[in-house]
Amino acid sequence: LAGGPGCNVCYGLVEDTQEKEGILPERAEEAKLKAKYPSLGQKPGGSDFLMKRLQKGVWGIISYPLSLDVLLCVDKIEGETSYFDSGDYNMAKAKMKNKQLPSAGPDKNLVTGDHIPTPQDLPQRKSSLVTSKLAGGQVE
Amino acid sequence: MIPGIGTLTQDTLWCFSQVKGTIEIGTTEADIISTVEFNHTGELLATGDKGGRVVIFQREQESKNQVHRRGEYNVYSTFQSHEPEFDYLKSLEIEEKINKIRWLPQQNAAYFLLSTNDKTVKLWKVSERDKRPEGYNLKDEEGRLRDPATITTLRVPVLRPMDLMVEATPRRVFANAHTYHINSISVNSDYETYMSADDLRINLWNFEITNQSFNIVDIKPANMEELTEVITAAEFHPHHCNTFVYSSSKGTIRLCDMRASALCDRHTKFFEEPEDPSNRSFFSEIISSISDVKFSHSGRYIMTRDYLTVKVWDLNMENRPIETYQVHDYLRSKLCSLYENDCIFDKFECVWNGSDSVIMTGSYNNFFRMFDRNTKRDVTLEASRENSKPRAILKPRKVCVGGKRRKDEISVDSLDFSKKILHTAWHPSENIIAVAATNNLYIFQDKVN
Predict the structure, then answer these.
(1) CB–CB contact A47 B92 (8 Å)
(2) What is the pLDDT of residue A92?
(3) Residue B65: what pLDDT?
(4) Is the ipTM of this complex over 0.85?
(5) Of A29, A39, A58, which to mutate for an interface test with B (greatest number of B Cβ within 10 Å)?
(6) Which of B16, B173, B337, B411 is deepest in the core (most CB within 10 A)?
(7) Residue B98: CATH number of its domain
(8) How many domains does chain B have?
(9) Is A139's pLDDT higher than 90?
(10) CA nearest A59 in B: which residue?
């Protein structure tokens, strides 16, 4: 590597690397991601998210409010937050309804399990009789 | 313009025709359209949404007075197909979102379609009623029972015309056959069977039998820790009832022949494009995951959609696609943020036109792209309310990648990633397309001269 024309070789190498990163913006993006979330695993960003995909909608895992950083280190869950049981789930939904959040998905920072639900607390079963707006249904 | 022969020459102009849905600030989640499908004649257009509802539009007969206007699509029927469920045994919440709708070919006066959510497939019959019986003996016209003592004569009820009523009834419910989430359904060309595919298994059903199905593909590993890929889409060959394909999260496609064995775990053909290992990155596998696979109408080709490209494969060549089209390659330098906001997991669909000469797929910012396979031209169009004047010609859009932005271009950083076009449909024989933009359905047609 060294030697008289070594300088040229070095430059060539540097240039090559830069060129490569230019050709591969993905690598630059990967570096960005790993810089933000160093605990992101070494394995390719495919395997863990598969398991989460299969788990979509499954309950039984207690979810605690996590700091946003830690949450983003976890591989993407392609679905909803987990709740402890159906009572917990319904309480959380009732809370969200009261807050009147715009849709998009469950609040990841929502604390659940702090209240034992009673039948009065649970929300009414969702009405399935609202006509689609595509068919000229009521605008709520 | 010859119907069905779509080409993106300089002469093809797409025009706005109709838009369905409301303009709202803050869309209700239930209104988000999750699937769009024309029936085999193009007379009917069905949509499914996250709220489990199906809306069917029917094309009006073209009026002789207005030669320059093609038939419009108006609401024909709407019904609640699926409702939210909770599986108490598995502690599993089952969404009512309609993942796919597939029409059966019409065999009598009624229309039949399959609609599915994550767990249950349903066969719906949509039929018209335009007559009703009148003149019952034991009931009066309001349906109240008559006092038998007052009945002195006997009459034969007659059928009289009434206002057209369209009824949708569930004829079959195919339940409890999928442990994982159903991503595809496909009607077989024999019109007797269909398949449903979830993340790990594919089942074959007979339309008449709801309590049994055959498992034809099972890729579940004995040890789930060894899971490396899932099934992402599946479809039957349009003519050969023994052949189907399924795609995977690793960017591969397998073609199976049901004559070879009852369980098609061993593929007949395996389509995979070799990857340069030096190009590999953290994102490689995620962006290579195929979100949709579609046979061409001819049955000779398959088209696949992954995060950044659409590829056309010749069934006779397994080692690489014959065509690759870049949908939005400029997103390559945005993969980090697209991973952070989950957009990298968006599942875009793709469609062929009637003559297999043009392919279409969606993108962000309510853009959608068309690629002409013959001329190699492509165009980017936008579904927006601003371009929604009747017969307004859609202006091609352009995304500016860096450096100087021209007047009409949009820079990558200004793209709205919440406006994604995942679902589109192309009329089977004409240049009419349906584009689902979140909660609105746009219908575009090519310009009638």
Answers:
(1) no
(2) 66
(3) 64
(4) no
(5) A29
(6) B16
(7) 2.130.10.10
(8) 1
(9) no
(10) B91
The C-alpha atoms of residue A101 and residue A27 are separated, in whole angstroms, by 37
Residue B227 CA to chain centroid, in angstroms? Answer: 28
pLDDT at res. B245: 98
Measured between beta carbons, which residues in chain B are less than 8 angstroms from residue A132? 31, 49, 51, 53, 55, 78
pTM summary value: 0.82
* Residue B153 placed within a domain: no
Residues pairing with B37 in the sheet: B46
Mapping DSSP to helix (H, G, I), strand (E, B) and coil, where does residue A68 land?
Answer: helix
**B317 touching chain A per CB within 8 A:** no
Q: Does A111 touch chain B (CB under 8 A)?
A: no
- The CA distance from A42 to A51, in Å, is 17
Subunit contact B284:A44, Cβ cutoff 8 A: yes
Residue B145 within a domain? no
Has residue B154 been placed in a domain? no
Q: Which residues of chain B lie closer than 8 angstroms to A24, CB-CB?
A: 279, 281
Query: What is the extent of the structural domain holding B291?
Result: 12-125+175-444
- Beta carbons of B332 and A131 less than 8 Å apart: no
- A12 has a pLDDT exceeding 60: no
Task: Name which of A53, A128, A136 is nearest B199 (Cβ-Cβ).
Answer: A53
- Which residue numbers in chain B have pLDDT < 50? 1-6
Nearest Cα of chain A lies from the Cα of B2 at a distance, in angstroms, of 31
Which of 4-23 (A) contact B at CB < 8 A? Answer: none
A26-52 confidence digits (pLDDT tens): 889 988 888 888 877 655 555 667 777
The Cβ-side half-sphere exposure at B171, using a 13 Å CA radius, reads 15
Binary contact (B22, A103; C-beta < 8 A): no
Q: Do A128 and B83 touch (CB under 8 A)?
A: yes
User: What is the maximum alpha-carbon separation in chain B?
Assistant: 93
Nearest to B55 among A34, A102, A134 (CB): A134
A84-118 pLDDT, tens digit each: 666 666 676 666 555 543 434 455 555 566 667 66
| Amino acid letter, residue B152 | T
Q: How many CB atoms are located within 10 Å of the residue B221 CB?
A: 12
pLDDT in tens, B25-38: 777 889 999 999 99
